[in-house]
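so the lab meeting is tmrw and i was supposed to have these ready like two days ago... anyway. pasting both below. for each one the top line is the aa sequence and the line under it is the structure tokens. i havent really looked at them closely yet so no promises
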Amino acid sequence: DEILKGENDSLDGKVVAISGSGNVAIYCAKKFEELGAKVVTMSDSNGYIYDADGIKVDIVKNIKEVKRGRIKEYVDEVKTAKYVEGKRPWGEKVDIAAPCATLNEMND
């Protein structure tokens, strides 16, 4: 947000792709939401979810931290979301990419 402020911009209304669905990704998503951005992807090692309406972080948190499940279970609870198996989220049209899972994954 501070970098964008230097450009007379903000996170408000920005669309964000996040990789991962562990602690780093979950709390990164929460912070983006708090600052007015909309997170549309999260992932795990098997694939990623895309929710054009914005990822419901509490559902992801329940799946990953309580149920210890896989990210694809999100589409069972949010019917408007899609799951893409075997891919990373970097092909989706977004304003900001936030890699929160694997070292050097932006080069894949």
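ok protien two:
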Amino acid sequence: MVAAIFYGLLSIIPHINFQTNAFDLGIFNQAIQKYASFSFGPNTIREVDTLLADHFELLLFIFSPLYHLFGSYTLLIIQILFSLFGAFGCYLLIHKETTNKFLATSSLIIFLIFFGLITAIAFDYHNNVIGAMFIPWLFYTLKLRKIKLYYLILTLLLFSKETMPLIAIFFGIGTILFEKKEVKKHGIITTIISVIYFFASLKIISYFNNGTYDHLPYATLGNSPIEILQTIVYHPFQSLSMLFDNTVKIKMWILLLMSGGILTIFQPRYLLLMIPIIAGKFFSSEEVYWGFSHHYAVEFAPIIAISSILTINRLKKENIKKGLALVIIALNIIILSQIHLYNGDKISRIFDINYYKNPFREDISSALEIVKKADSVSAQNTFVPHLTNDKIYLFPKIDNSKYIILNINDKNIWPFKSQKELIEEIEKIDQNNNYRNIYESNGIKVLERKI
């Protein structure tokens, strides 16, 4: 319950106060809204004919009916619930492995306060967060020999995002290497299914995206998964050096080791599972992947929470086990107190009364009421996740929209680089004879197309 409230403060409150983003909550909200109405697209925010041209995330189809109940809050609620589901999976697995309630609870706590999970929850919604929550359940269902349930969990993990099969591939390899003979066949099946699903996903995305896949930020290694793998195999030392060639990467390594990752070294099954996650982060040419303030470290959460406690359980003395588990928890709390979220804030912002206020909320709500029935709207970043129009554009893209909705006071000005740049663009619209100002209050403006 405490974790649910904490996550709600980090995730739901910003949405209430119009502080979530077009990229990515707005994109996903438009997608599930259309899926809920049996439409594939277009996704005008991401500027693709269908969101399947961007990522292969089939779970959105499963979640979409809930949009009729929870509206723009749907995915944020789902993300919180699945995070708790993942934590419970860690608890059950450790309790099964150790029969030690204290260690099981410690694993649950480490998972819940792991910085990669917290920063992901605080930054809108992402399907890799949901996918990561199935990792402990893969181990748990296989441990119980609940094979049908295992394959259901595997399917849901694969459905979460096209990158998650890479983790499943290494899970399958680990099953082949480390599990008992009667289970190895499921490792082989898992590996084969995951390899096929991974390449099929990329093909489907490319089909909808004019033959290309836009999310391979690994130009120094290659332009396709095969080329990237070849470079790593043929140039291993050069490739390995890329894991440590930037101060941001070094800081990330320190955080991972401090949070309990150093103990993963003693758990080869889990260490193997970290290979695709580490490669996906540190081989990227984009700094946002290396860092710790978005959603790109969430997959480490279950692996570190489980493997660190399993290593501690190897110790003989009970008081040493408890003491070391508490040390890992304390280190995670320290990290959490210092980490910055995607917008530069610290977690401590939830203790600031101003965090719960938006003096322009009523003005924004009135403006949104004006535009809600229009076919097309161009809006600033933080308005977009709340819109339900058929065509939604991220300002300054207008594309002949019926309305333009703006907020001069908004501090979250992305994609603009400065407040000055935003104001200059708004002034251009004010001088545009195609639009007239029909609403203005405390810096909130709605402009309507004249023709």
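from a quick look at the 2nd one: The mean pLDDT is 93. The beta strands are 376-379, 391-394, 403-407, 435-441, 444-449. will dig more after coffe
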